[in-house]
Amino acid sequence: MDNVNVQDLLRIIESGNSLFYVVTDNEQSTERIVTQVAARIKGAGSPFVWTCTEGFIREGASFKDTVNPLPALDFAIAQPGSATFLFKDLSNFWANNPFIIRKLKEFAVRARSKIIIVIGEEETVPERLREDLVILYQGIPVVAEIKAHLELLKGRVPLLTQACAADPELVGKLVVAAQGLSLEDIERSVGAFNQSQASSGSEIVRAFFETKQQIIRKSGIMEFVVNDTAMDHLGGMENLKNWLQRRETAFGLDNISSGVNMPKGVLIMGISGCGKSLFVKVIATRWRLPLIRLDMGVVYGGAFGSPESSLRRALRTAEAIAPCVLWIDEIEAGISSQGFKAEGGAASRVLGSFLTWMQEKNAPVFVAATANAIEILPAELLRKGRFDEIFYMGLPDETAREEIFRIHMKKQNIDPSGIDVGLLARLAKRFSGAEVEQVVKSAAFEALADKRPIVEEDFLAVLRKTVPLAVTMNEQIGSIEAWAFKRAVPASGQLNR
Questions:
Q1: Which CATH number fits domain 225-393: 3.40.50.800, 1.20.1250.20, 3.40.50.300, 1.10.290.10?
Q2: What is the DSSP track for 458-482?
Q3: What is the pLDDT of residues 90-103, one digit of tens each?
């Protein structure tokens, strides 16, 4: 189950299950659901909530000698009649404790009208327990839950009521802005809006967006990319631009920006410095979506647990920011056929987790993956259907180079009227976009250092001294181009497929 909710949890309990493990990183949200479930079970009342510091607490009352896990389980088993028990820290104790495992197995057999729900941040269930319990996941609230909660908050927060009255479409906008947030995060955002005494509906939308930024910063795994890259920053790349425009025409830019009819994603491979990262930024800007960057090196770094748990945490965070663009930079660094040999089971599990998420994700997360060496990626990742399209970004042709020269001259406030930009583009044969940019910057620096206006000779001097990457790594680049010839859509030029 992707998202634990009251109705589904009740249905599973009514099917005869009494022992559950919920994978969640939001204890408050899960406890709220368990409390609502317990209230609907005849005779159960409020749940008994256990922590390793206080033992069982129920409606403010504590119970002696229940701090340690084994006495706490004995207490749960001994309670007469219907009861619900929520264990918050038990998963930290059960891994190497056969006594805890045995008591839970006995509870599963003898529970009758009692329920135990264990929660934890990772799916660390002992193998011997898996046949006795149901594993669930606490996901993000669905649209209907968000809308219902916002309607509830309207009755409590006068400023929200006033803002919705002033803008009849505000609730719909807030539902879109709040997608991916927990109900607790939504309440905090509305509270911040209320305290600010703002009256504009756009202010509460901004409050939701700021909450999402905080979630990214707290995750530590990903980076929020401040981005204002526009389409006119791209030189060439006709096929990529056409791909964007056709989807905007088909689905509507407003629908894409709100997460409706969001495309699945693209994989962009090619030579370093040719604009892969730039195009990802353009996607986010054009579709008016937040851009978050995931570094696979951090996933494997170990600072946030195992690679599999780090990836799951990152993907959950991406869903919490949705609708958004998830930029997986240099994806081959973490998901590659070579990685299988180097990392063994971990690499296989990371690939499996990522592919499953790509296949089944419901949150509007557009995945933009970039790779410098796509030939080492496993075939499972490249098969049709994983991404909407696979693009190859090669060296820019002469027309694209001239366009790139003009783009960077404009950024440097250089007047191109006295410069033969076409000549520069011809002389910069086999230069990447990044190398063209550096030529412009170096020429501008030389003129600035001499305290004089820039002239064409400044560009020619830099070009004469520069050896492009395509020359120094000719064989490697030739191999990449050969691999991509019939396997990917070229980013520029004529499309003959």
A1: 3.40.50.300
A2: HHHHHHHH---HHHHTHHHHHHHHH
A3: 999 998 889 999 99
